[in-house]
Each structure stands twice: as C-alpha cells, then as structure tokens.
TrEMBL record:
GO terms for molecular function: 4 iron, 4 sulfur cluster binding; adenylyl-sulfate reductase (thioredoxin) activity; metal ion binding; phosphoadenylyl-sulfate reductase (thioredoxin) activity. This is Adenosine 5'-phosphosulfate reductase. It comes from Domibacillus aminovorans. HAMAP family: CysH. One of its GO terms (biological process) is hydrogen sulfide biosynthetic process. The gene is cysH. It is found in: Cytoplasm. [4Fe-4S] cluster binds at residues 123-124, 206, 209. Catalyzes the formation of sulfite from adenosine 5'-phosphosulfate (APS) using thioredoxin as an electron donor. The lineage of its organism: Bacteria, Bacillati, Bacillota, Bacilli, Bacillales. Its EC number is 1.8.4.10. Binds 1 [4Fe-4S] cluster per subunit. CDD domains: PAPS_reductase. InterPro entries: APS_reductase, PAPS/APS_Rdtase, PAPS_reduct_dom, Rossmann-like_a/b/a_fold. Pathway: Sulfur metabolism; hydrogen sulfide biosynthesis; sulfite from sulfate.
Length: 237
C-alpha cells in the first residue's frame, strides 16, 4: 500500500491511470483508491460542481463512502441546500459534517470580529485546516476535486500526491477534466448542483470571502477578493 510514510519507496507502484478513458482516468483512479485504502479513504467535499461529479462517480464504486464537509458556519444557504439534495439522491452515502472547535461568536471573542477580513489565513486555519486535520486523522488517504485547469498553483497536480500538510496521500481523480467537461457530465446525468453556479460563482466557498468571478479564464478570481490570498490552505504544502 502506498502511504505517506512509504511514498519515496512505493512510487513505482502507482498505476498508470488512463487519461484517455471515458472519465479521463477518474473512475479508474477512484476504483483503485477504494480497493487500496477501503475505509481508510475519505472524500473532503465542498459540494461545488466538481464535488457533484465526484460524488456521482464515487457512488458507482462505493455507495456508502464517507464524505466530510467542513462546515465553517459561513457557507451560503444554497450550499446547505445542495447538501440536502445530495443526501436525498444518494441516501447510502455517509456524509459527515465537521465543525470547527470555535463558534463564530467564540472566535470573535478570542480574536476579533470578522476575522476573515483582518486575518483570513487565521480564519481558514481555525475553520478549515484544523477541522480537516481532525477529520482525516483516522485515514490514510483523502480525495480532492482539484483540476489542473483551475489555477496555476494546481497545474502540476497528479492523480496521487504526497500531502505534507496533512501527512496523507491525496487522490485527485479529476486532474485532466476541463470546466466544460465537468458541466457536460452534470448536464448529461441531470445532477443537482449549487444554484450559485448559475449566478456567476464558478468557485464557491464561505459567503463573506466569495464573490462572482471576474473572468471564466480564472474561475477562482472571486475568492478572497483584494486580499492577495488565493488558497484556503488545504491544498498548500
């Protein structure tokens, strides 16, 4: 088994997933990952459009898979509505809501109100990074919906990645998918998705830190507008 600890010695064991298959290697990657890691594999899902695709693919392989949602308590109501729709469509999935240790009120008292404005990195650490660390603690590997096309910082993502931040193997089945291919799949299979995608939000995070994108050529341009911040920290090592 390829683990964080065995990564250097086990890279030769990484299968050559077919990037030219019907799902561009996604289904093959997921099947291998669940066969390899079983219950030690978890999908951390934000329930954006890539997540909707991955959930549908995962349900074909492991209908009772564990999916973790990091509830920062700052999400759009449309995001919570999307989760409810997914639960109804895939009732066997084990969707777990991971909460931060601090409520918004406790965070404001300990630091300052609206920490996302003054120190967005700290806010993400408290409400995303630490909760994901706890959610991933029992796992060997986790799934992410990263695509190479999303941003320059994600352009070199592979199917399997060494995640030094969380000391896990990060599985990214959608690396070769384009934005159009994601939407083509959702439309073809008539999948439910966050309606904010139809209102100029290609990338959806916490409500205070997410605006409509300026350009479809940079679908994450609406995140942390004006702060110089481009990632919440979950995918930086």
């Amino acid at each position: 088994m390829i683990t964080f600890e065995s990564w250097n010695d086990a890279q030769a064991q990484i299968p050559d997933f077919p990037a030219d298959s019907e799902t561009k290697g996604a289904l093959e990657t997921l099947r291998w990952a669940y066969e390899t890691y079983g219950e030690k594999l978890v999908y951390a899902c934000s329930f954006g459009i890539e997540g909707i695709v991955l959930i549908d693919l995962i349900a074909q392989i492991k209908p009772d898979a564990e999916i973790v949602f990091l509830d920062t308590n700052y999400h759009f109501k449309e995001t919570y509505e999307t989760i409810d729709k997914v639960k109804a469509r895939y009732p066997q999935l084990n969707i777990r809501i991971q909460q931060p240790d601090l409520t918004i009120e406790e965070q404001a008292a300990q630091f300052e109100p609206d920490l996302f404005k003054t120190n967005p990195n700290k806010c993400c650490e408290i409400r995303k990074i630490i909760p994901l660390q706890k959610a991933l603690a029992p796992s060997t590997a986790w799934i992410s919906g990263l695509r190479r096309e999303q941003s320059e910082s994600r352009a070199n993502t592979n199917y399997l990645n060494l995640d030094k931040r969380f000391e896990k193997i990060k599985v990214c089945p959608l690396i070769h998918w384009t934005w159009k291919e994601v939407w083509r799949y959702v439309t073809k299979h008539e999948l439910d998705y966050n309606v904010l995608h139809d209102q100029g939000y290609p990338s959806i995070g916490c409500a205070p830190c997410t605006k409509p994108a300026f350009s479809i050529d940079d679908i994450r341009s609406g995140r942390w507008d004006g702060s110089g911040k481009t990632e919440c920290g979950l995918h930086t090592t």
